Fold this protein.
Amino acid sequence: MELDAIEDLIEAEIPDAVASVTRPRVHNDEDEDDHYAATIVSPAFEGLSLVDQHQRVYDALGEHMTTDIHAMELQTYTPSAYADHGDGALDHELREAGLLPLEE
């Protein structure tokens, strides 16, 4: 499955989500291409436990979790948690989406 397609599924199903999906490792086994890592930031995660946040992502991916995706490493954040603990890789996209304050 293409990385952009996974991001689109997540962003379409979770309100105001910004998602970044990668393949975290490269292997010689063709099935290893089904391993993904995703960082998702959304205000919809506010007040949810980490388990519930991850369940929202799995629900967004639906049947793809049993057909196209073998494994998914997840990092989920509310915008404020990402501002405090995220790696900054999504800052530009989050500012464009109005989820982080503009730099001064």
Observations:
- The mean pLDDT is 91.
- The helical segments are 3-13, 50-61, 64-67, 79-85, 91-96.
- Residues 50-61 form the longest helix (12 residues).
